[in-house]
Every structure is written in structure tokens, then in C-alpha cells.
User: Fold these one by one.
Assistant:
Number 1:
Amino acid sequence: MEIKVVENYQQMSLKAADIVADQVNQKKDSVLGLATGSTPEGMYARLVEMYRVKMIDFASVVTFNLDEYTALSPKHPQSYHCYMNRHLFDHINIKPENTHIPHGNNEQDISEICREYDYKIFSMGGIDLQILGIGVNGHIGFNEPGQYLQTRTHLVELAEETIEANSRFFSSPEEVPRRAITMGMGSIMHAKKIILLASGESKAPVIQKSVSGRISTDIPASLLQLHRDIVLIVDKQAVSLL
Ligand code: PGA
């Protein structure tokens, strides 16, 4: 596990965008695993800038997002479908049919949707580069702390800490969806390369626990210590407890 400490959020975003651009420039049809949340917003903004000056071309790139709320329509402004369009897809030349975000609601057969999602990732040759943020409770994607973790894409009940953390995007905590579909730990760990981004003091305790040398399902991100090719790009505040 390599840890690159940078000065601030801006530096973290630039470095992450450079890694994505290198990946895509080396392999035009790269399969990227994408994350949402506040953390990768700056990286997406930089990738859009790089696209505009022809430093990166998304024409053959394929993407799979980590997760999505089940109860929200893809058109809801707080859905991750809207997030991805707003921050990246609407501004670059990616083909809509090459972008994938898990989607299902309560009436549909979610387990079938999850199986198909994993199959699609597999049939595209797996994820070349996975981008991750980290929750204050150690979740990656929506793989929440608990007695056990799941390997495959699955339906998940969101943890209270996650609902509270994400309530800043909604008018009240009651509006935050309680359930989501998330890629599992296996789908994430099978990515050929992973970059995990973290910025700010609020992430310092969980970064400390995630790189401690111990692995626990109480801190899902701690499993990443077993990955062969992972880089943490973290700002000074996020490593202040190391
Ligand atoms: P954040 O979320 O980037 O908004 O802090 C990270 C996460 O919950 O995975």
C-alpha cells in the first residue's frame, strides 16, 4: 500500500486526475470504476479540463460506478446518476452506453440486477483502475462496517453514520434513502489498480485505522491493505493521526 501525502484537496484532485489520464492514455478502452461523494468532485473537474485541452479522450472508455440509492429515480438531483452527469459525463465524449451505474427499485428483482452488474464487469475484462473515497465509518462504496462483508454487488441497508453524513445533500436526514445497491468487496478488490482519495481532518481517524496493519470488517477499507496495487492519495489533514 503506497501512501502519497499531498498538501491539500486541490493537489489530491490533480494527482488523481493525472493517474486516470495516464491509465486512459496507455489503454484507450480502459475500464474505470468510479466513485461519487464530495471527495472526487475536484478530480472530475480536472478531468473535464484535461478533456477540453485534448489531454484525455474518453471515446472508448467504459465506466462502472460503485453504488446508487435504490429509492431515488435516476433523475433525482441527489441520485448518483445525476451526480455523474453533472460532474463528468455531460462534459466529455464518453458514450452513454459505456457508462454503468447499478439501478433498481424495490419492485424489481434486485438480486438479478446485481448479478448482471457483476457479469458485465467480468465480461469487460474487469476494472483496470478503481477510484475510491472513504466514509468516516470506513465504508468503501456502500460496504458498511459489520460482522461480515459481501463479495458481490448487493443490496445494502445504509449505516446510521452514512445517513447522517449524506444528509448534507438532502433537506433533512429523513429524506436520505435507507437502502442502496453497492459493488461488493470482491468486485473492488479484483480491480487491477486502486486509488483511494481522502481529504480533511474528518477522515484522519479512519485513515489511521485503515492503514494500521490490522484488518477488520468493522473498517471495510482496512481490507485494501491486501491489494497488490493500491495508492492512497491523502492530504496532510487526512494523515494528521498517522
Ligand atoms: P465523501 O464520501 O467523499 O462525500 O466524504 C465518501 C464516502 O462516503 O465514500
Number 2:
Amino acid sequence: MSVHTQPADQSGSVKRKMSVLDFQKYKDEGRKFAYVTAYDYTTASIVDQSDVEVILVGDSLAMIMLGYDSTTPVTMDDMIHHIRPVVKGAPHTFVAGDMPFGSYNESCEQAVRNATRMIKETGCDCVKLEGGANMADKIAAIVNAGIPVMAHIGMTPQTATSFGGFKVQGGTPQTARKIIDDARAVEAAGAFSVVVECVPNCVTSQMKREITIPILGIGAGPDADCQVLVTQDLLDMYSNFKPKFVKHFAHVRAAMVEGLNQFHAETLSGEFPTSEYCFNKQVEIPPAADK
Ligand code: KIV
């Protein structure tokens, strides 16, 4: 584990930014990597200082940042507004930009136009979009336009209502086969990697035998080539909902509430601010002109 400073700390530790080609290289070398969300400059800069290799500016910001109860309301403008500061804050980390619902579903032309806009206006490294075989033509069109595409299959939050909400997918032989066929379709369409969300481990294991691109798993078991989590979930900051696959690696919400309460208590007691936190210079202040 290292704490990276830019460009190099005293131990010489420099974080090298992954490229699109590195995704396949890591997989081929059996080297796992980690992937988290960020939606703002400060969080991005914290991730950049960590060992985590990949950031997603996910449309989950609808729920985590904006308080909606699903991901569907966010727009291209919302996504661009959040991706820009993340790219700025994480120069040593690969940044994926999530295409919001309705920005690519209509036609290949719409998909290419909005993917191009996302790359041009934010400087992110690839776009991510939800869908399998049904989105293969959109993926191929974006890839043909020269933009790397990360696909997202299994539980796809933008269309979750059509399969009964946020639930594990691929629990029957037919649905498991469909998800694996979706993985094959997005690979054939040119996606360089695929997020697989909320499926039984055996689906991921079989998928791994049938595709060669990296599987980025979120609730997809240990066989995925990379593990993905929402930062606010893994740090125990978001309290509305905890999926089964989320492990809390720290308790940042509790630490923040404790810090805020300490500030409140010291404000009321007068303990804060001591002279350490004050501008102590004595200034000879003349009387007011009208006195
Ligand atoms: O928007 C998001 O955060 C995602 C992850 C759950 C993969 O798509």
C-alpha cells in the first residue's frame, strides 16, 4: 500500500496512469486491479493518492450526490459537470465517464454525438454505457468513432425497473446464458472491458471462459479481473441502502459526524478557536471618522 504524492514522494513512489491497453495487459498477466467511483475534485484527488487504478464518474451520482432515488434523471450536462473536476483531480488515474440514460439509446448517431461530447468536454479516458447485445450497434459505432467503450451488463441500474428493481441477475440457466451472451456481444462489438454487476459467481466464472476482455465485477464474485465499488459505499458514507456485495473498509460517515460534533461542542464551549487558529497581530485601530 502506498500514498502517492505528485509527481514522486521521497520513496520515489509514482503512480503511473493505466491506459486502455493496460486493462488487457493486466488481465493477461493475471494482475488484479481496483476501480471506484468519484464525482468531485477532492474525492478524485484522494483516489489519485491511493493505489486504486481506475475511477468511474458513474451516473450513480444521481443517488449519491443529488439525492434522486434512481439513476435515470441525470443528464449529459450533469455528467459533464462532474467528470471535469474528477479528471482535474486525478491526473494519475484512468477516468471512465458514464453515459446517462437517454444519451445513447435512440440511435448510433446520438450515441456517437454524446460520447464525443463527453470525451471532448471532459478529457475522460473512455465512456461506459449499459446494455449487452441490444446495445452492440451503439458500442460498435462509438468504437468506430475512435472512442474506447467500457460496457456494463448484468444488473443495469438505468433499466432496473424493467426487471423488477435492484436485484441479482442471472439466477436461472436462461438468464445466466443471456448475460454471458451479452458479454460475448459487447466484446464482438469492440468494448475493451465490461462491467458485470450483481450476478452469481458461477456466471462470472463461465463468462471468463467465453470472453477475453477484462471483467470488471461489482457483486460478481472473486473471479472478476477487477473489483468495482462505489466509494461512498466502501467507506460507509452513504446510509440509504447497503447492497449485499458492499464491504465497509472504513467508517467515514461516523468519523465525519464525530468531527462535526466536536466542532459544534468546541464552538459552544469557546474552546475553539484558540490563538493557534487566529490572526493575532495587534493593529492600532483609529476611532471612526464620525466620532
Ligand atoms: O454508476 C455507477 O456507479 C456504476 C457502477 C455501479 C458500476 O455504474
